[in-house]
Structure formats: structure tokens, C-alpha cells
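Fig. S4 source data, part A: sequence.
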Amino acid sequence: MSNAVVNGLAGAGGGIIAQIITYPLQSVNTRQHTERVAKKGGRSLPPTGGTLVQILQVVRSEGWGGLYSGLKPSLLGTAASQGIYYYFYQVFKNKAVAIAVARKIKGRGDGTVGVLSWLVVAAIAGSLNVLLTNPIWVLVTRMQTHTQAERKIMEAKKEALLMEASESNFIGSTLQEKLAQLDATKPRPYTTLHAAREVYNEAGITGFWKGIIPTLIMVCNPSIQFMIYESSLKYQRAKRETNKQGLNNVTALEIFLLGALAKLGATVSTYPLLVVKSRLQAKQEIGGNILFRYSGTLDAIMKMIRFEGLSSFYKGMSTKIVQSVLAASVLFMVKEEIVKACVVLAGKCQKLNIVK
């Protein structure tokens, strides 16, 4: 089995485990991204409650299942994304290493891959991953924000009913009955198939690639992440070699910490694009007011600046930092352990074949 396939499978396995552990934080964070709050007096209003408060609100109103809405397609998306990304990343990494070695033989360079090469390798792998898996993440975003969107739609219906009542002099009891009926209405069951139909009915097949522009730009996130990770790992291994401790003695805890450092740097620098992407992929009725609906990436950016202020680009950032750093740390740690296990297993199989 090639190292590209091994890394692809290991990345998928690590991604699934990380996703299950951190999914409630991811679900709440997506809701934070898509919550529209107009600024007043020139300032954007702060979010209501912290992450823990919002988690408890979801549990109270929707049950524990509300925190895991969209988990199934999310796990599929994670497995596909991590598998595709790590496979192509390893393929292009192997080529970059081969080119570096060839340059050394010709007397150019020291035989190691430079920072720019790591960025290019990660960018190519990330772009292929985005183009192939974006439809899955559109569905996940829809499912994570469905209840939030339904609540906004219900609030709009109540406002319309109250306005109609004031204009046509409804009898008080009639108005109360209609309001009670709206309050008693529960959100429709919302499956992956429902989300797919909704996206297709709204925008056709191209709807599954909503948010593709900011997502492609966000390819620089894993590029930055892997640049920091590979550079730090290279430094740590060189340090081990200098101390004559061996090349493979980088511990799981050190991998965890290096993964956390890499993801933290990448998340802080690219977070505004993540917010724009989530808003484009969510159901547009979630905003209620047509001024908060977006026709494209530039329209979303301009309206967010105009109506909500620059702080809207950093909504839920603390939640995302905790979720993504924890997820990346678990992913890197699990992936490296799976790769090590595969190498050991391959070595044992080779010895058995030699004995035979």
C-alpha cells in the first residue's frame, strides 16, 4: 500500500474521531456565524450569551440531538475531505521531496522542501478537496442552521400577523388563537434529502457549490496550517537527531501540541472567510430582512460591513478556536499513530514474507 493511500486513510480516520468529539462546538459555531444582528448607534450589538450558554439553550429548546444535527453528512464530509486532502497532499509532497533531492544532486539546495513548496503542495491538495466535497458541506450547514432558520421564519410570520391585525382590527381572541397555533407549530423533520431538495429548488445544481469562492480562498488556511506544522515537525525531528534520540521519537503529545499551534495560526488569519462561507451556504430566510440576504460573496461582505460592522466577521471566533484547535490536535495525533501502526504492520508482514 502506497504512503499516499495510508496517509489518506489515516487522515479520514483521524478526522472522523476529531469530528465526533468536537461536533457540538462546530454546530453552535455555525449558528453564531449565521445570526444576523444589525448594529445600532454605529456599533454592532454583542452576541447573547457565551458558547456554554448557547449550548444549553440548544439543549433546552431542541434536546441533545440539536447539537448533533447534520452529524451523518458531516462525518461523510469529514472522511471524504480528510481522505482526499491527505491523499493528494502526500502525492504532491512526495513529488516536492523528489524535486528537492534532485536539486541537491545537481548542487542546488540542501535537499529539503522549502516553506513556499509546502504552501503550494497544501494549496493544490486543498483546492481539489474543496471542489470535490463542497456539496456535502452545503448540506451540513443547512442542517446545522435549520432550526434557527425556522425560528426566524416563524418570527416573521408573527410580525406579519400582528401588523395585519392592527390594520384590520382583528378580534383579540382570534389573534391569540393564530399566535398560539404558530407557537405550537414544531419544526419540520429535516433530513439530508430534504436539505438537498431545498438547495436544488433554490438554485439548481450550482446551489451545491454556494460559498465556493471564499472556500477556495480559505485553501490558504490548511496551507498556513501545514506550513507551520511541517516546519515545526521538521525542527523537532532535527533537534531529536542532533541529540541522537532518533528521528521517530516525536511523541503523540508533541504532535498534539504542534497540531494545536498550526491550527491556531491558520484559524485566526482566515476566520472572516469562514463566516462569509457559512452565511452563503445557510438558508437565506435565516436573516428575515431582505437586506441581510446575499446574492454572492462580494454582496455578503459589503452588507455585513454596512449593516453589522466589522465585528460580524469574527462572530463566534472563540468557539471556533477551541473547536478547530482541539479537532486539529486530535486529528494529527490520531493520524500519525495510525500511520506508525501501518508502518509497523507492514514491517512485520515483510519479515514474515522473508522467513517464508
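Fig. S4 source data, part B ends here. The domain at 3-355 is CATH 1.50.40.10 (Mitochondrial carrier fold).
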